[in-house]
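Deliverable D2.4 — example input (structure tokens):
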């Protein structure tokens, strides 16, 4: 994507070309209609809030199919709207597709542009352990506590190499959207430690996320590992680590 600093969304926003910039606040992508953070293609008119994920803008400009190891036999085509009748479900996050999508020519696989570009592996800091994007897992999701998502499309999961930490991509996207609606992705809100705990607890409702005096070293280590895992998968799903995400997870240092 290097060098693609400007695009023109002739159908969605014909008035101005969109420029690649970093958004300081969360946004709803004008292309895929999904929550976005960080880099995106924005209208230069300060009174206009039209913005696209960088992946949506790249797909719109070049219409190249994504590289996906999970769907190697698919011939993906980029579409600004679903060319087929009926509701389409993203095969990575298992959530409805409302706008831009990549669709297999066979019509059986659909992907959000942002989901199609998720990192396949993430390295845990200070170790050789990996968090992997997996198609099937025997681990229970930190949010829904199930091994599989309900529904015909199961979607993928981020799972630690030891299998102890797992998060469905769908559950994480839903939890982040919920945190955004609750106002937790605002710097003035996150300045309050209690709000950080509430936001983290919403991500992992059945886990201990609050460090406290008297906890054993193993318990503290477990909390730190959990929060590091959450930080990395949230950053992967939202696109990149940035101020709001970093501020949310600073609780791990307390």
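Example output (designed residues):
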């Amino acid at each position: 994507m290097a060098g693609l600093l400007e695009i023109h969304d002739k159908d969605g926003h014909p008035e101005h070309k969109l420029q690649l910039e970093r958004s300081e606040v969360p946004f709803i992508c004008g292309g895929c209609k999904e929550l976005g953070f960080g880099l995106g293609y924005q209208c230069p008119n300060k009174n206009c809030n039209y913005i696209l994920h960088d992946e949506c803008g790249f797909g719109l400009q070049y219409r190249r199919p994504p590289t996906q190891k999970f769907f190697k036999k698919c011939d993906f085509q980029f579409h600004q709207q679903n060319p087929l009748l009926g509701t389409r479900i993203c095969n990575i996050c298992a959530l409805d597709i409302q706008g831009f999508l990549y669709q297999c020519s066979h019509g059986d696989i659909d992907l959000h542009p942002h989901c199609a570009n998720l990192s396949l592996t993430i390295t845990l800091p200070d170790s050789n352990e990996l968090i992997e994007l997996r198609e099937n897992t025997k681990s229970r999701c930190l949010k829904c506590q199930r091994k599989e998502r309900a529904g015909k499309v199961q979607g993928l999961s981020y799972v630690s190499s030891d299998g102890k930490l797992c998060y469905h991509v769908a559950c994480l996207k839903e939890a982040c959207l919920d945190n955004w609606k609750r106002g937790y992705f605002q710097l003035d809100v996150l300045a309050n430690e209690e709000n950080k705990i509430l936001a983290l607890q919403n991500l992992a409702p059945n886990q201990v996320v609050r460090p406290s005096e008297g906890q054993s070293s193993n318990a503290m280590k477990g909390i730190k590992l959990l929060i590091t895992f959450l930080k990395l998968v949230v950053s992967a799903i939202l696109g990149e680590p940035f101020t709001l995400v970093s501020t949310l997870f600073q609780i791990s240092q307390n």
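Residues 6-61 form a domain with the Wheat Germ Agglutinin (Isolectin 2); domain 1 fold (CATH 3.30.60).
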